[in-house]
């Protein structure tokens, strides 16, 4: 049995995967969708700990595919670094990724960092980043945009500033970087730099909401690569 641990990105929650999980279940897979939490005091390490806790509930008889969307690419890699013998494959979906010490702010362009910091300062105490509009995630269809806007949450600023802590164990775990076209940020390059194979899919950044079927198909292809433990 394959278990997919699906980790949502910034401003989102486990509901982000609601249109994908039924498709994976139909294919015979199990799914877990940990909630990273939006409390303003939480940081990237807290989010990684939530994912590690989810990984520890999966049967050791299962093949485990760890999926991180967007910001959660950093979270998934830190969690996999802590459990390299548990995770069989990492999949990034338009995911940010870097080496030890990387943070989302260290990977993002200066204009992005400046805009996020300004939004956090304007929000009140400066600890949380208010959610951007659905259009920022490539969602323009009125019904889907309204559905998303009603669910988006503030994001703790610490999650974007806190650097990842990697021992190098994550480099033993093979990975796939799925990047959406047209590209918004160089997610294909982040994946390639981590040594992952890269796969393109046409759709917006929140492709799990607009095109769940092709995304589920790509996630399922990761199963054929899950036993390719890398030598480092």
State the low-pLDDT regions, or none.
none
Shape: globular
Q: Which sequence of SSEs, written as H and E, runs from N to C?
A: EHEHEHEHHEHEHEHEHH
Determine the number of helices (DSSP H or I, runs of at least 4 residues).
10
Distance between the termini: 27 Å
Fraction of helical residues:
25-40%
Mean pLDDT comes to: 95
- Structural class designation: alpha/beta
Q: Which sheet architecture does the biggest sheet show?
A: 6 strands, parallel
Radius of gyration, whole Å: 16 Å
What order do the strands of the largest sheet run in, or round the barrel if closed?
2-1-3-4-7-8
Strand portion: 15-25%
Total beta strand runs: 8
Write the layout of secondary structure elements.
Layout: E1 2-7, H1 21-26, E2 30-32, H2 44-55, E3 63-69, H3 72-82, E4 89-93, H4 104-107, H5 110-122, E5 128-129, H6 142-149, E6 155-156, H7 158-161, E7 175-181, H8 187-193, E8 197-202, H9 207-210, H10 212-221
Helix pairs in contact: 2-3
């Amino acid at each position: 049995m394959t278990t997919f641990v699906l980790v949502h990105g910034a401003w989102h929650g486990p509901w982000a995967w609601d249109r994908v999980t039924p498709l994976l279940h139909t294919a015979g897979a199990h799914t877990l969708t940990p909630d990273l939490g939006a409390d303003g005091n939480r940081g990237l390490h807290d989010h990684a700990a939530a994912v590690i806790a989810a990984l520890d509930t999966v049967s050791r008889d299962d093949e485990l595919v760890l999926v991180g969307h967007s910001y959660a690419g950093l979270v998934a890699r830190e969690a996999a670094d802590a459990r390299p013998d548990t995770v069989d494959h990492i999949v990034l979906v338009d995911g940010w990724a870097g080496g030890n010490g990387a943070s989302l702010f260290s990977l993002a362009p200066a204009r992005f960092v400046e805009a996020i910091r300004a939004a956090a300062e304007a929000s009140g105490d400066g600890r949380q980043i208010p959610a951007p509009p659905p259009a920022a995630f490539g969602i323009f269809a009125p019904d889907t945009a309204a559905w998303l806007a009603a669910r988006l949450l503030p994001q703790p600023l610490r999650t974007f500033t806190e650097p990842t802590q990697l021992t190098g164990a994550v480099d033993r775990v093979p990975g796939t970087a799925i990047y959406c076209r047209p590209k918004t940020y160089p997610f294909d390059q982040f994946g390639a730099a981590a040594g992952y194979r890269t796969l393109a899919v046409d759709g917006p950044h929140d492709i799990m909401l607009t095109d769940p079927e092709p995304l589920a198909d790509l996630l399922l292809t990761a199963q054929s690569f899950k036993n390719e433990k890398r030598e480092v």
